[in-house]
Amino acid sequence: MWQNQTQNRSDLFGSSSSSNQNNSAYNREQQTALLYEQQNDLRMEELASKVSALNRITIDIQNEVHGQHAILDQNANSFNDFGASFATTVKKLNVMASQKLGKSMCWMVSAIVILFFIVYFILTRMNST
Predict the structure, then answer these.
(1) In Å, how far from its chain's centre is CA 91?
(2) CA-CA distances (angstroms) from residue 41 to 28, 51, 55?
(3) Do the Cβ atoms of 54 and 48 come closer than 8 Å?
(4) CA 64, CA 75: separation in Å to the nearest integer?
(5) DSSP annotation of 99
(6) Roughly how many angstroms between the first and final C-alpha of the chain, as a whole number?
(7) Taking the CB of residue 80, how many other CB atoms lie within 10 A of it?
(8) Residues contacting 59, CB < 8 A, separation 6+
(9) Cβ partners under 8 Å of residue 106, min gap 6
(10) Distance, C-alpha 92 to centroid of its chain
(11) pTM for the full predicted model
């Protein structure tokens, strides 16, 4: 009798073992979907941290570039000032060299500079040995 009732129920509502199988398959699918979702969340967090690191690096590079540009501008201004000063000095030397007294002054200054380098060379040789 008990088996007969179970058979009637199975016929009426479907097999309980088949519904358990359907439920377990549905649960496995849900667990798999949940696992994929967790993996995706983890990958997204990793990607976000890498993007954040790249953002910091690019900001640092940008700051460094701005600093280098400022240094280059300062150097360009210094060289321009030196060039103007040197041009003025050369003009004054040309004026002095064109005069008779200036030529003898140029020879004397040249001799002193050459003598200075000779003494410097001799002293450095003596100190190095």
Answers:
(1) 47
(2) 20, 15, 21
(3) no
(4) 16
(5) S
(6) 121
(7) 10
(8) none
(9) 93, 96, 97
(10) 48
(11) 0.46
> What pLDDT shows up at residue 97?
73
Extract the tokens encoding 98: 């064109």
What's the rounded Cα separation, in Å, for the pair 86 and 83? 5
Joined together, the tokens standing for residue 8 give 């009637």
- Amino acid type, 73: D
Q: What is the spatial distance between Cα 115 and Cα 121, in angstroms, rounded to a whole number?
A: 10
State which amino acid sits at residue 72: L
Please provide the size of the chain in residues. 129
Token pair listed for 44: 């997204």
6-42 confidence digits (pLDDT tens): 555 555 555 555 556 667 777 888 899 899 999 999 9
96 touches 106 (CB < 8 A): yes
| Contact in structure between 103 and 97 (CB atoms under 8 Å) | yes
Q: Where are the alpha helices (DSSP H) in the chain?
A: 2-13, 16-98, 100-128
Highest mean pLDDT range out of 24-33, 78-87, 91-100? 78-87
